[in-house]
Every structure is written in C-alpha cells, then in structure tokens.
Amino acid sequence: MAEISVGDDGGTTAAPTDGRSVGGALSRWLWYDRSVRAQLLGTFVLINLIAGFAAAVIVIYNGRRAIEAELAASVEVAERFVRGTVERRAREMAGTLHLEDLAIRINNPRHVRILIADADGHVVSPAEADEAAAGAQASVPRWFEALAQVDDLRRDVPVMSNGQRIGTIVVVGQAADEIIEIWQDASGLALLALILNATVFAILYVALGRVLHPLTRLATGLRELERGHYRHRLPRPPVRELADITGRFNALADSLAAARTDNARLNRQLVTVQDNERRQIAMELHDEMGPCLFGVKANVGSIGRIAQALPETTAKPIRERVASLVAITERMQVANRDLLGRLRPMALGHVPLADAVASLVADFEGTDRDRRFVLEIGRLAHGYGNAVDLTVFRCLQEGITNAARHANAATIAIALGEETVAPAHAGEPASMALRLSVRDDGRGIAPGTQPGLGWSGMEERVRALGGHLALAGAPDSGTRLDIVIPLDMAEPADTAGHDRP
Asked: Last residue of a domain, which of 306, 324, 344?
C-alpha cells in the first residue's frame, strides 16, 4: 500500500545496528540495549559474583591449610594416646595383651579414626563410629568435599604380647569432620551474604527507579516534542541536578511552542497576502478586462450592423471579419471567467462555506455526468477566514480533479466537517479541527508514484495552516485524501455554526 503523508509533526528514527560480528551483536544485546537501571544492577550482580567466587577460593584455600594443620596435630596426639594406652595395659597385664581389651579402651578422638587389626589384618574394632562419620559427611556436597579434601595421614602402632606381634593399631587422620565444619560455616555465611545482597539489590532497584524516573520522563518528553506536542511539560523532580535538566527542557518546550506559534502566524500571513494579491488581480480582471472585452464585442457588433448598409461585395468580407472578432472576443471572455475562478472563487466570503463546496461539487457533476458524486457535510461554521476557506476549496477542487483525471473512478465521495481532536496529554483541553476527505474507487496509487505540482500546492497551503495532509491508496483499491486543519488559530467569518445533512 502506497502512502504519502505530510504534516507539521513527524520524524524518522533509525536504530543503529551492529551485525558485523557475533561479539558486537552479543555485547549490544547484553549491555547497550539495556536500560541504565539494568546496566547498574547488572554491574552490581557481576561484582558480587566475582567477590563470591574470590571468597569461595579463599575459603577453600584457607580451609585446606587449616585441615592439614589440624590433621597433623590430631594424629600426633592420637598416636601418643595409643602408645601410652598400650604400654599401660602391658604393664597392668604383665605383658599379656588382648586386642579386644584394647578395642574397648581406645576410642576415636576428633579428626582421627583408630583401627585395631590382628596379625592377619582383620579389623577387630567396632565400626559404629565410622558409620556415624559417614552419615554426617553425606550432608556435604561432593564437589565441595572434592575441593577441600586433603591426603589422609596414617600412623601404625604395633601391639606386642609376650614378645610376639599380635596386631596393629592404625591411627588415620581424616578430614571429614573439618570439611563438615568448614561447609557449615561457609554455607551459613553464603546464605547470610545472599540475603544481604538480595536486600541491597532490592534497595538499589527501588532507589535507581526513583532516581532515573525523571530521566525516563525526560525521554518521554523529548519524544513528545519530536511529535510536535510542544505543550508537554515535565514536573520538577526533587533532585537538584535533574531539576535543572527538567527546567531546561520546559524552557526549550516554551521556546519551540513560541517559535511554532510565530511560524504559524507568519505562514497564515503569507497565505493571506497571496490570497489578497490574487483577489486584487481577480478584481482588476473583473473590473477592467471584463468591461473592455464587452466593449470590444459591442463595437464589433456595431461594425457588423453598419456593414449591412454597404454593397454586398464590400459587406461580405466585413461580416466575416466581424464574426471572427466576435468568436475571439467570446473565447477571451470565457478564458477571463476561468482565470477569475482559478484566482479567486467569487462565492467565497459571500456565501457559507458549505454552499460554496456544494456549488463546486455541482459544477463537477454538471460537466462529468459519467461519475457519481457523494457529498456529506457535517457541522460547519459560516466561514473560517479567507485562508482556511480558500485552502479547503482549492484542496477539494484538486482532489476531485485528480480522482476524475487519473484514478478513472466511478464514484467520488466527499466529506467535510468539524471534528474534536483528543488532547495529547491528560489535563489539556480538547481542540477542534476541520477535516476534508475525498475517496474514490479508482485504480489507486501505483508504487513509486511521485507527487505532482497539485500535491505540492496543497501541501504548502495545508502546512502553512499547521494542518496535516495524507494520501493513501493501493493498486486497484482506490485512493483516499485526508486533510486536517486545526481551528485553534482560525478566524471564522461567522462563528454561528449550523448542521448540514
């Protein structure tokens, strides 16, 4: 569908793209396409992730060192305890020892597992402690256990009875207890850090939202200015720096609104000056050229009557010249009337705008009976000033001419009337506008069609009045011309409105 649109507001924005590399597209998606709040919060999360990773490395490194030192001390103490117990029982039993008796008297101290094996390598100590340690160790994730695990320390203490070796007491240092303690401390600190970071994240989210909200409103305000809504104003935020920016924005909006008002006033004056000049030329043609042509035609007619008294041989060529002069004079009178109509429709300013429009449509109906014309006139004032009335008349004249000449339309529908324009922002009063619509069922607009001189003339007139003009159509689907002229600065000739069916 082809569409041409011209108005007093608008603009195009082009989003920069960076598709030259996957890395550039990824970085844009991750960073440049995000809001300032998302960028700051993402930076905060990234810093916390790095800090958490560094803290985890330090915890595991220090934990491994602490485990190694703890195991070494525990194994040393356990070995002394085992040797002392064996020697004491040997003295008490007169050198005769039993492994079962030692198993009862020797318990597993902290971080150490003590195993009593006979000469054949069979373990005779109870395994309940090992099972309990294994159950406690199962609560630690395997990945953490693998990272914090150190090599076990082992000491073998032989058991002699009556000069013979009856078994071995194995002292094994195990890191399970220390790993459990480190995991409990680290998980507790991690949970506390997670809660604190989530709280800080929520506080930052709310705080950044309150701080950046004026910037969001500023961006919205700039978009409104880009659309031509120069009445848009921003409330003053409490932050001093942002309040200064908001003040500059409101001052800019005031300046643009004033400049727009001045431009509209100058454009209206320009259109008025052009119309006055055309009206003056039309009056000169009507008051001077019309009587002159009438006088020429009357004098030529008198010459023809005088020629009737002359001999036939002399009168015949005179009558021929007189007929030729009369025909030329009549063509000049027709051309003069057409020129007067193009320069200044005589009905405008003297009859209501609705009657002038109806008369124009009736003229087209009289000269083009092969087409059907449908006219719908809504609420209209008597007039809206020379500039608006003449612009509506000329645009309607050009629109019907284009539809009849280029669109090959069977039906042309015209609608004209006032309409209420909703305010762009809450709290602003609604405004009135004059809408002209010309629709046809012709061949439509071919793709790539360039606007002609008639379109340029309508565009200049409508834009000078601060209006909007749009022409839309698709091949074999007809064409629609819409013109909207604001009435907030119009100077109606008669403010008493009336409804027309």
From this structure: 344
- Tell me whether residue 482 is in a domain: yes
Q: Which residue has the higher pLDDT, 341 or 183?
A: 183
Question: Please, what's the b/e burial string for 227-254 (b: 16 or more CB within 10 A of its CB; e: otherwise)?
Answer: ebbbebebeebeeeebeeebeebbeebe
What is the token pair recorded at 137?
């160790």
Answer yes or no: do 357 and 488 share one domain.
yes
113 vs 99: CA distance, rounded Å: 16
Which region among 58-62, 207-211, 415-419, 475-479 has the lowest average model confidence (pLDDT)?
A: 475-479
Instruction: Give dist(CA 205, CA 39) in Å, integer.
Output: 11
Which of 325, 344, 363 is the last residue in one of the domains? Answer: 344
What distance in Å separates the CA atoms of residue 419 and residue 414, rounded to the nearest whole number?
15
Position 233, amino acid: R
pLDDT at residue 415, rounded to an integer: 93
Tell me how crowded residue 416 is: count the other CB atoms within 10 A of its CB.
Answer: 24
The verdict on residue 11 lying in a domain is: no
CA–CA separation, 114 and 129 (whole Å): 10
Query: What is the number of alpha carbons within 13 Å of residue 481 lying toward its C-beta?
Result: 26
Query: Containing domain of residue 454, as a range?
Result: 348-501
If asked whether residues 240 and 377 sit together in one domain, one would say: no
Burial of 489 (0-12, 13-18, 19+ CB in 10 A): middle
Q: Is the dihedral of CA 26, 32, 35, 37 positive or negative?
A: positive
pTM of the model: 0.49
Strands 498-499 and 379-380: antiparallel
Span 50-79, average pLDDT = 87
Q: Rounded to 10 degrees, what is the CA torsion of 407, 410, 416, 420?
A: -80
Per-residue pLDDT at 346: 61
436 and 317 both lie in a single domain: no
Q: Which amino acid is at 445?
A: I
- State the Cα–Cα distance between residues 232 and 37, nearest whole angstrom: 25
30-57 in b/e form (b: 16+ CB < 10 A) is eeeeeeebeebbeebeeebeeeeeeeee
| Mean pLDDT calculated for residue range 414-420 | 90
Q: Is the Cβ–Cβ distance between 357 and 416 less than 8 Å?
A: yes
Name the DSSP class of 382: S
The whole-angstrom separation of Cα 119 and Cα 122 is 8
Structure token digits, residue 494: 């008669």
Spell out the residues 6+ positions from residue 432 whose beta carbon is closer than 8 angstroms to its own.
418, 419, 420, 421, 486, 487, 488
Let me know whether 365 and 329 are in one domain. Answer: no
- Give residue 111's identity as a one-letter amino acid code: H
Asked whether residue 9 is domain-assigned, the answer is no
CATH of the domain at 104: 3.30.450
Identify residue 148 by its one-letter amino acid code. A
The structural domain count of the chain equals 3
Residues 45 and 179 in one domain: yes
Tokens 């070494």 sit on residue: 72
Q: Assess if residue 209 is contained within a domain.
A: no
Q: Cα 26 from chain centroid?
A: 21
Chain-centre distance of CA 186, in angstroms? 46
